[in-house]
């Protein structure tokens, strides 16, 4: 049966070729396409070669404990992906960190263990979809050792999951959502192994803001507004809990849409609830509309407005209605090392740091570089072997790391920050964002 | 098997099922609204004055929607075509209004001659939008007239992106903050309603413009020409009406209304950026459909209705049903209301006014 069928097929095939030959079709194609065919054969050969190399290079020694091992040949660079937001409304947040990472590379003379550090910057767009796209690009190249980023918690959610599955490590200098690491001492819903951060967990920022509102401002009734983003929702939720624990009352915990303009109805609800303080850790432009429309509502004329680091931007603090507003945010580091860093930043980029998380990103890069130096094994032929599992363990074992933002120690859920939170106020005397950030009224240090 | 059964089944057997299903939806909707409203009102969470505030907020937001909706509905009435770039025409006007206002706010005129300077700003905004709307029609839509409807529609989407990013390229991606108008801060009481001065300007200006437009379309020769072109382009041409010119005027008037809306939007929300036109554009289109597309008074009523539903709906219905963070869902409420209105009245509140249907 089979043989018969085969014969029929081949006969048909032969007939087809004959037919084509008789028309001169195939012959012509062959004549014309001689060079093309040669090229095609070469291309296939190259692909096979590349595939073979791929198969052998990263595999190497693969026992249980070491997991996948990356081999970096002599003279080749150590590839590190930098996932930051470098376009759109939030571009300054990512650009600031990319610059800090570049300075960290410069400080190492551009290399680790005689291998140059190769940074590849990908834009995560500060969105879930952007984070997903950027991380897929990184995973397509098996030579990446680790990821520095992301800027936004929203982008970190898909990036963390995908890189964790692929065995990579990722260390962020500005993700603060509790969901990404831990909430109340337990793993957050978006925690995945291999994720670390040098930025504070918003559990700390929310507690700081709530303590300030309750003890320093003597407010007992507060309302919170988030916009559905993991960062805003996490922060508002922590504030609610901490404010209630302190003895205050949350009169209404509500939400707006990121693209909403008319805040008056929701502000009317807040006025009806009797809140004395509104904590809205959201972004622009929704944050602008809340500040601008709040004082128009009867019953909110004396309300205290309070935002978080998402609103601490140069375009926000110049809005006249934000005068008198309080903001919580990461404390600006102090000390000679930080001043030296700022001097390098200014010399290299011609301006002072433009956002709040450059020092955290610098520390994140150095924590990663130290861990790579610790686990990389130099071979006799000048190549490096890095075990992905060992790299994860080395990062998790980071303790008493002396960074710009303090003394960093990583816990089992990837929180490494030595978090200190400042509450600042924008008054008539401050005109720029750095002046507002320097007007510190309250510092919260969970260690004390 | 199934196919033959379906093929043999006469229509009247299927219809009662569908009909009763629609009735179920209607009853459920009415029940949810009444239930939610009952609990909201009986809980006494908001005071009477606050409910009245919500009505005024809705009216001022609705006036802006209504003015934009007029442009959609007029173009649809005449060309059966949705000008999707209309939201961007509105945004361009607002953007220029911002620059003119910023210039004026540095002079003494801003405080001494408030209404004259505001009028100038509005004129600049309306003029910009008019020019852009007419140019859009001439460059992007007229060459495609008579082609299948999908083609100008796709062009309109392209034009919308072009305008957004042209504005972003010219003026930057950032938010532009409209200067405060000292004379318009504060509020007053009118018939028991507390009205912000900016809102009163918006509502009064919008109502005046809508009345003016209605008279223009119903009482002038040009208006008559528009109605004739809407009825039948070929016959109108035979009657000696310059169809191209009339269509240009339709776009110009729609653009002027959008420009004025851009200015009024700035008064209420004090901020504009290159994507400002998108959401209000979609909402205004919704308003036009709610009112009955192609129908000018319908667009006005649709706009005010949509503004009102957005403002009052979440507090009245959703919070009463115990849904948390109701205001985040105001768009859901608005579009659910759209679906409901179309289930009850498939051609909008005042009915679609399309020549083919009347013929």
Description of the molecule:
The complex is a heterodimer of chains A (448) and B (359). Chain A has 448 residues and is of the alpha/beta class. Chain A has three domains: 2-56, no CATH class; 69-199 and 357-417, Rossmann fold; 203-332 and 422-444, 3-Layer(aba) Sandwich (Rossmann fold), CATH 3.40.50.2300. Helix content of chain A is 43%, strand content 19%. Mean pLDDT of chain A is 85; it is low at 1-32 and 54-62. Chain B is mainly alpha-helical and 359 residues long. Chain B has one domain. Helices cover 75% and strands 3% of the residues of chain B. Chain B contains 15 helices and four strands. In chain B, α3 (48-79) packs antiparallel against α11. Chain A binds chain B through residues 88-89, 227-228, 253-257, 259-262, 264-266, 268-269, 271-273, 284-285, 288-289, 292, 296-298, 315, 318-320, and chain B through 45-47, 49-50, 53-54, 57-58, 61, 173-175, 177, 180, 187, 194, 196, 268-271, 273, 279, 310-312, 314-315, 319, 324-328, 330-331.
């Amino acid at each position: 049966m089979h043989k018969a069928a085969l014969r029929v097929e081949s006969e048909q095939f032969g007939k087809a070729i004959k037919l084509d030959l008789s028309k001169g079709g195939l012959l012509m194609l062959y004549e014309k396409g001689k060079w093309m065919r040669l090229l095609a054969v070469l291309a296939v050969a190259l692909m096979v070669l590349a595939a073979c190399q791929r198969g052998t290079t990263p595999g190497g020694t693969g026992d249980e404990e070491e997991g996948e091992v990356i081999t970096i040949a002599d003279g080749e660079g150590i590839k590190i992906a930098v996932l930051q937001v470098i376009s759109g409304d939030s571009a300054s947040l990512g650009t600031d960190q990319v610059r800090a990472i570049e300075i960290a590379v410069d400080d190492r003379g551009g290399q680790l263990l005689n291998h140059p550090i190769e940074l590849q910057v990908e834009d995560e767009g500060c969105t879930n979809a952007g984070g997903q796209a950027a991380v897929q690009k990184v995973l397509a190249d098996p030579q990446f050792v680790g990821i520095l980023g992301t800027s936004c918690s929203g982008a970190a959610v898909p990036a963390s999951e995908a890189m964790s599955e692929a065995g990579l490590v990722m260390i962020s200098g500005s993700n603060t959502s509790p969901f990404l690491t831990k909430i109340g001492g337990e793993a957050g819903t978006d925690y995945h192994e291999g994720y670390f951060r040098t930025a504070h967990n918003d559990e700390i920022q929310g507690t700081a803001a709530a303590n300030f509102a309750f003890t320093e401002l003597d407010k007992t009734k507060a309302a919170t507004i988030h916009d559905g983003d993991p960062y805003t929702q996490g922060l508002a939720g922590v504030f609610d809990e901490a404010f209630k624990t302190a003895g205050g009352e949350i009169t209404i915990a509500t939400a707006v849409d990121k693209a909403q303009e008319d805040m008056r109805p929701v502000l009317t609800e807040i006025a009806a609830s009797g809140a004395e303080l509104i904590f809205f850790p959201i972004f622009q432009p929704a944050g602008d509309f809340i500040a601008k429309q709040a004082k128009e509502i009867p019953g909110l004329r004396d309300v205290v407005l309070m935002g978080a680091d998402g609103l601490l931007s140069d375009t926000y603090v110049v809005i006249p209605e934000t005068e008198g507003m309080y903001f919580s945010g990461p404390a600006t580091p102090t000390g000679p090392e930080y001043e030296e860093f700022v001097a390098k930043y200014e010399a290299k980029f011609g301006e002072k740091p433009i956002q709040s998380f450059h020092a955290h990103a610098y520390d994140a890069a150095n924590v990663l570089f130290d861990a790579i130096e610790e686990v990389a094994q130099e071979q006799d032929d000048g190549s490096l072997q890095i075990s992905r599992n060992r790299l994860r363990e080395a990062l998790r074992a980071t303790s008493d790391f002396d960074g710009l933002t303090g003394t960093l120690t990583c816990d089992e859920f990837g929180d490494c920050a030595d978090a200190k939170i400042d509450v600042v106020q924008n008054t008539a005397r401050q005109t720029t964002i750095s002046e507002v950030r320097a007007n510190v009224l309250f510092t919260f240090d969970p260690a004390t | 098997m199934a196919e033959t059964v379906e093929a043999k089944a006469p229509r009247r057997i299927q219809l009662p099922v569908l009909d009763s299903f629609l009735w179920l939806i209607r009853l459920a909707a009415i029940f949810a609204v009444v239930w939610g409203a009952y609990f909201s009102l009986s809980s006494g969470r908001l005071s009477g004055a606050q409910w009245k505030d919500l009505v005024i907020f809705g009216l001022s937001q609705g006036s802006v929607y209504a003015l934009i909706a007029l442009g959609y509905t007029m173009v649809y009435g005449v060309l059966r075509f949705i000008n999707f770039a209309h939201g961007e025409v509105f945004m361009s006007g607002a953007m220029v209004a911002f620059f003119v206002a910023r210039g004026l706010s540095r002079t003494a005129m801003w405080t001494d001659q408030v209404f004259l300077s505001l009028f100038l700003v509005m004129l600049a905004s309306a003029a910009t939008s008019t020019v852009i709307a007419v140019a859009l029609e001439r460059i992007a839509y007229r060459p495609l007239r008579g082609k299948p409807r999908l083609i100008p529609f796709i062009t309109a989407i392209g034009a919308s992106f072009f305008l957004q990013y042209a504005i972003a390229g010219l003026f930057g991606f950032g938010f532009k903050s409209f200067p405060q108008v000292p004379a318009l801060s504060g509020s007053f009481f009118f018939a028991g309603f507390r009205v912000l001065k900016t809102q009163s300007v918006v509502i009064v200006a919008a109502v005046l413009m809508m009345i003016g437009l209605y008279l223009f379309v119903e009482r002038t020769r040009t208006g008559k020409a528009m109605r004739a072109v809407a009825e039948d382009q070929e016959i109108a041409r035979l009657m000696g009406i310059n169809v191209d010119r009339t269509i240009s005027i339709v776009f110009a008037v729609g653009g002027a209304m959008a420009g004025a809306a851009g200015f009024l939007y700035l008064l209420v929300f004090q901020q504009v950026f290159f994507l400002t036109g998108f959401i209000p554009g979609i909402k205004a289109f919704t308003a036009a459909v709610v009112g009955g597309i192609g129908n000018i008074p319908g667009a006005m009523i649709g706009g005010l209705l949509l503004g009102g539903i957005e403002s009052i709906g979440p507090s009245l219905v959703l919070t009463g049903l115990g849904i948390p963070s109701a205001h985040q869902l105001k768009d859901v409420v608005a579009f659910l209301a759209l679906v409901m209105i179309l289930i009850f009245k498939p051609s909008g509140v005042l009915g679609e006014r399309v020549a083919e249907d009347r013929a």
